[in-house]
Amino acid sequence: MTGSLFDTAPPDPPVRADAPLAERLRPSSLDDVVGLDDLLGKGKFLRNAIENDRIPSMIFWGPPGSGKTTLARIIAKTTRARFVTFSATSSSIKDIKALMEEARRSRQTRSAKTIVFIDEIHRFNKAQQDAFLPYVEAGDIVLIGATTENPSFEVNSALLSRAKVVVIPPLEREQVLAIVERAVHHPTVEKFGIELTHDALDFVAATSAGDARQALTSLQLVAETASRDDSPIDVAKVKEILQRRSLMYDKSGEEHYNIISALHKSLRNGDADAAVYWLVRMLEGGEDPLYIARRLVRAASEDIGNADPQALVFAIAVQQTVHFLGMPEAGVALAQLVTYLSASPKSNAAYVGYGEAVREVRQGDNPPVPLHIRNAPTRLMKDVGYGRGYQYAHDYEEQTTAMECLPDSLAGRRFYEPKDAGAEAAIKERLERMRGARRR
């Protein structure tokens, strides 16, 4: 048929003369790809699938600049199937269904396979993703999606269950350095007639956070703006040109949750050095300092608890300091707090006790409040037994009585088990003394 919708998506568009360096150096074959040995080494799954043209539906999940789109381009170049690309920002459900129906007809009439590539598939809404599902299920198309976000949260579970998730790791520093060293000999860089020291190239690689595209963009910027008189360009000059290193941090994506998790677990583990490092990673990445302060308030209660009750007071004070001062001054107060929390004695007893009580309330039969500890503001309530038998703790030497305050079905149940840590050791001793007094 003529006028095919597939004609609008050439698989291997020519690279423009003014294209960025990263685009000009994009690998065109598997042998040109740097890194990904666990996926593309001899005999590995993905290499076999590509070389044998037996591509399954896949979701490429990895950080920016790790090679997701490059792999899709190589598949487009090597496969005998039709290769179609979709954009999440410009494709309507009507467009999707029209192309999918054409793919179905091609499969039925000519046994022609269609591979559909969706870059940034997480930007497709649920309805758009659902539109692909019946065609993937029927085998009319092979779907390849690329995303920087966790597919567990961003890709429909039904679609995810029909595709293999391929984790693309960030490139190692040495791998990015190899790419940059190869790039300095490209005509785009050589025409400026400058040289960079090995340390300068290593700095470009180290500050790219495993993103080859970012490293090549930085290299191009240095080549275009440095003076030949300064050649060879050293680390100091590169820093001056780039101004600020690239930080792999997405305030709304998975790296946000990874790093706040690293901060929380570092201070829980008593590692003040790691806690300060992850704090700075978040602040330098542009995270809202009040968000960090809120999480630290939570940590003061969850992980330190009654082992150091002042930790929660301090955390609230720092939260107010952050609100009052703002950045960058508030960064010091946050660092003071994370180091204090790291060094504090730890107890999660209140946190565990709260969780146990929540589970009991949600799963139990929630018996009524015992009559003797109910309030009795009216004569009728007194007459039916509200408050009868109540014992006032202040009238007793031990400040506790034998009165049971839990429902009969829960009598003797312990939810809070204090630890022998910090101030909580004294709390534990007092509670045990009061429990003994009640037994007597």
Average of per-residue pLDDT values: 84
CATH class of the largest domain: Alpha Beta
Rounded to the nearest angstrom, the radius of gyration is 31 Å
Order of helices and strands: HHHEHEHEHEHHEHHHHHHHHHHHHH
Task: List unreliable stretches of 5+ residues.
Answer: 1-11
Number of helices: 21
What is the second-level CATH architecture of the largest domain?
3-Layer(aba) Sandwich
Which overall shape is indicated by the principal axes computed on the Cα atoms?
Answer: flat
CATH superfamily of the largest domain: P-loop containing nucleotide triphosphate hydrolases
**What is the share of helical residues?**
40-55%
Number of DSSP strands?
5
CATH topology of the largest domain: Rossmann fold
User: How are strands sequenced across the largest beta sheet?
Assistant: 2-3-4-1-5
Distance between the termini: 94 Å
For the largest beta-sheet, the strand count, sense and barrel status come to: 5 strands, parallel
How many independent structural domains? 4
